[in-house]
Amino acid sequence: MREYGSILLDHSPNQATELLKKLCTDYRPSMKPLVDLNMLDGTLTAPEIKAANAEDFIHLFLNNSERLVQFLEHIILMCPNSSTQVYNTLVEHYLHVWSSIEKKRKEEASEEDKADMALLEGKILSEKKMWESKIMHLLRNPDAKYDKDQTLILCRVHNFKTGLMYLYEDAKLYQEIIHYYAQHGDYSSILECCCKFGNKNSELWIQALWLYARGTSIPPSFLREVLDVIAKGQLLSPLLVVDALSSGSSAAAGTTNLGDIRSFLMSVLSAEGEMTEQEKARVSKYQSETKKFREQINDIQKSTIIFQGSRCSACDNQLYLPSIHFLCQHSYHQHCFQSFSENENECPACLPGYKVILDIIESQ
């Protein structure tokens, strides 16, 4: 078959293909019985039947991709653990058949079919969808042993968008997805990609901004949505955004004016203003508390402190000796204090508040 298989395929393609399928999966020699007489008394075991390697016959189908696809589909169906070469070849010829459908069907079309181009285009589209479904089924199969890098290149060569997007997403190459859409001027898909994967990689929104700065014929709504997300996520400072838009070499960047980014600047300034007010309120609160603490320290140093607590701050029962009192006016039974306290020098009730203040001070 290796020597004369191509001749057989030229003259009897159906029979030759079926023979090759059997040779590589469940071929059983007809000249030798499957059960030897010696096996009946248990002295011999069943002979091992070795199938031929499908890789050895792939070259016979090089002039007929559709026959090769039938052959390899059968091999994978019967032997899912087939080699990477088998899977790679099947993917390659799937894509070859898919990309050549339109040209081939138009060449084979009769004059009657050519007269109704809408019907012919519908048939071609339906057939391409069928092959696309086959390709994606194979690519999504977790047990398929195709080489993803090689398949990615093949999808690029044949411009198979569905497979290309799937492989990019599977490899987390989100920036390549944006680059692909930018090359084809599909800016709505760029926004969809950023919305879908932006939580995993916020740099996508910044890349989208640079695309706007360097692109042409990009709708202003694209910029508004990108800037809205950048403002909410605080991904870039206003100065860097303005610099990016002003430094772009394209017509889009050159025509960007203050009105296009006014809402972005206003939202950023408003957010920063609110943050400033919050910080001022926090500073005022801490100043007031500090003043209060200083007054308490002064009272402790210059006057007598009277502990008037009659109930335990931990169990809320009547206080009795031995008891422990703190200057914050919290009092505890000795056994309650020992149970709740993390530090013998600190009041358990006040400790959480002190920790918050200490954490803020340390973070500064």
Q: How would you portray this structure in words?
A:
It is a peripheral membrane protein. GO terms for molecular function: protein-macromolecule adaptor activity; zinc ion binding. This protein is mainly alpha-helical and 364 residues long. Among the domains are: 181-274; 311-364, 2-Layer Sandwich (Herpes Virus-1), CATH 3.30.40. The protein is built from 17 helices and two strands. The chain has helices at 5-11, 13-24, 65-78, 84-108, 111-115, 117-140, 148-157, 161-170, 174-183, 187-197, 203-214, 220-233, 238-247, 251-254, 258-302, 334-340, 351-363, and strands spanning 323-325, 331-333. Strand 1 (323-325) and strand 2 form a beta hairpin. Helix 9 (174-183) runs antiparallel to helix 10 (187-197) and helix 11 runs antiparallel to helix 12. The longest helix is centred in the last third of the chain and has 45 residues, at 258-302. The N and C termini lie far apart (80 Å). The mean pLDDT is 82.
Query: Overall 3D geometry?
Result: elongated
Quote the beta fraction: under 5%
Main sheet: strands, sense, barrel: 2 strands, antiparallel
Given helix and strand content, the structural type is mainly alpha
Mind telling me the C-alpha Rg?
A: 38 Å
Distance between the termini: 80 Å
Strand order of the largest sheet: 1-2
* Contiguous uncertain segments of 5+ residues: none
Q: Number of DSSP strands?
A: 2
Estimate the helix proportion, in percent. Answer: 55-70%
Overall mean pLDDT stands at 82
Protein name: RING-type domain-containing protein
Keywords: Membrane, Metal-binding, Zinc, Zinc-finger
Pfam family, one: TPR_PEP5_VPS11
Family: Belongs to the VPS11 family.
